[in-house]
Amino acid sequence: MLTLARRWRWLTLLAMASLLSGCLALPQTGLFAFRLAVTSLGVENVRIGPYNLNAGLDTTDLTSLIASSLGAGSLPVQATMALGLGLPAGMPAVNMAGFNWTLDMPGVDPVSGRYNEDVSLTPGDGANLRLPVSFDVLATDPQRLSPMIDLARQLASNGSLPAGSELAITPGNLRGLGMTLPAGLLTPTLRLNVGEDGQLTPVR
Fold first, then answer.
1. Helix or strand or coil: residue 37?
2. Is 77 a residue whose pLDDT tops 80?
């Protein structure tokens, strides 16, 4: 028979072991978010006002063409951001309950959105998503008409975000290995800078 003092000693040791195992499990689960990777980033379906720039529109005199057709005091620029997400080899498959995103392009107010669908992430098999991006040129500053049209033209012609852009992704809840990691708990925001030729560089 164990004495009362020895029983308390064993209970204390078991409690400490459980606490340590729990503390170790959380960082390992948190690696899902730390290792989230953007595998590709592109731009599709660029429109400025009523004009589809991806349809072969002659953009040499686009500024004058649009300026002559203005009247509503609004000039929406719309595009689709093609985003590839993945996990490195060796990571367990996880399911992400959507994510928040923010895109900051030079000369444009930041654009934010929420991807509400679940995203299944498997190492070596990236998920290809489409996010709507839109901003209004004239609602910001009519004097920026020409630079904004140049930006839209660049998005359409290059199919990529301009250098100096920054993309931020904040994961939602993560499920994997029989556990759920709530959003905001060891799931930091992933920030990426877009360099020349579309290279992606994580922001430290």
1. strand
2. yes
Which tokens sit at 69? Answer: 């057709």
Q: Is residue 47 in a domain?
A: yes
Amino acid at 59: T
CA distance 82 to 69: 30
Q: How far apart are CA 138 and CA 148, in angstroms?
A: 9
Work out how many domains the chain is built from and give that number. 1
| DSSP SS3 for 90 | coil
Better pLDDT: 73 or 49 = 49
In the block, residue with structure tokens 């164990």: 2
Amino acid at 95: N
Q: Does a structural domain hold residue 134?
A: yes
Domain that holds residue 144: 7-202
Condensed to tens digits (0 to 9), the pLDDT of residues 12-47 reads 434 333 333 333 333 333 333 346 788 889 999 988
Within-domain flag for 2: no
Q: What is the mean pLDDT of residues 106-110?
A: 86
Instruction: Considering only CA atoms, give the Rg of the chain.
Output: 24
Indicate the pTM of the whole model. 0.74
* Residue 84 within any structural domain of the chain: yes
